[in-house]
Amino acid sequence: MKRFANKFILAAGLVMGLIWLSPSSAKRQDQLQDSPAIDYRHTDSQDAVARLQRRINSGEVRLEYSEKNGYLESVLKALNVPASSQGLVFSKTSFQLHRIMPSSPRAIYFNDELYVGWVRGGDVLELAAVDPKLGGVFYILDQEKTTRPRFQRNDECLQCHASNSTRNVPGFIVRSVYPDARGYPIAPLGGFVTTHSSPIKERWGGWYVSGKHGGERHLGNIRFEEKGAEYNPAQLGTQNLTSLEPRFNTQNYLTPHSDIVALMVLEHQTQAHNLIAKLGYETRLALHNQQVMNEALQQSNDEMSDSTRRRIRHAAEDLVRYLLFAGEATWQAPISGPGSFAKEFAAQGPRDKQGRSLRDLDLRRKLFRYPCSYLIYSEAFDELPQPALDELYRQLWLALTGETKDKELVAIPAADRQAVLEILRQTKRNLPAYFQQEK
User: Fold this and answer.
1) pLDDT of 169 strictly over 80
2) What pLDDT, on a 0 to 100 scale, did the predictor assign at position 1?
3) Distance CA 16, CA 174 (A)
4) Is 228 exposed, middle or buried (0-12, 13-18, 19+ CB in 10 A)?
5) Whose CA is closest to 197, among 374, 327, 365?
6) Would you tell me the crossing angle of helices 386-400 and 306-323 to the nearest 10 degrees?
């Protein structure tokens, strides 16, 4: 571990150069994480990785080690993470950057509640899990064979994963950069944090992308020169790839793909997780601050103050807009991936009596058929503090019934809003009773 720790100290400094934090931003992050209402660094996580570690400790689960990729396949199986979710990133934007390059990209795998990073020949597996209270929690697992593997929590990741890019809470980032021939981001050319609102032309810089997307161009599969980021004729061959050979040896990976559909779902999901965590943080902090004030003034805690309500309402507004895909980017031609991800993802359901699901993909002009995120079913959503859930459902109801004052949400087609309401009525547990009312 000492060998790894020394490498990490060096790499973390290099990666930090990619995300600039203002003093006020850094102070805000510390306030959020260190408040007694959160106490991020001293609170035991209840996420999927922590639960798996308990099963390993009890002997219920045994991880298998392979010479090819260490514990990767066994970890994915134990955590129910599909290999088809594989995305490949060749930019040096991870702390194992010394092993990442265009000929040896880093692999990212994910499901609804966690992310796994694997680097060929790397010292560790990298894991990031969603905790209902803490937001993103980060782990490493030594890639050395042992009788009882141990996931080690790694709060050093917060140097990059608690920033403006993650809404100032511990969270997740998908970045698009302009990589040079070795994979280093070209700093003067900048980059983008990618969400479902990002235009195609700004996505996937530093990533390999396999799949069909028509005539629109993206930044994936390309290496740039510092003198400019404009496309040239040679770069047109990087678009609409169904095979990533001979750019690197795809046989070294669990699948030969970096599926365009998986990447798009990943981009939606990461910021949704951040906004759910943000609402949880803001609510817990607002309620804690009010309690402290009331105790100091010897006042009752029975009623929320106006300032507490506003703080919760504003965070809920941001989340509702994102869950309902306000400002979502669209495109001109159908998108399709070469692997099985799209089929496997949609098959998870749940479905209403008409067979509809919030996991149904569209891919013709937008990502999903119905404009409401499947993460509304997530544990992180369901375990938000009750005042946050109350406000969130209130705003969601107003949006889906067309009574909101938000112009973008009102613009959602009435048929789509009605479909989402009907799906939720039949598939979402603990839905407020007023959602059953017909409008």
Assistant:
1) yes
2) 40
3) 15
4) exposed
5) 327
6) 50
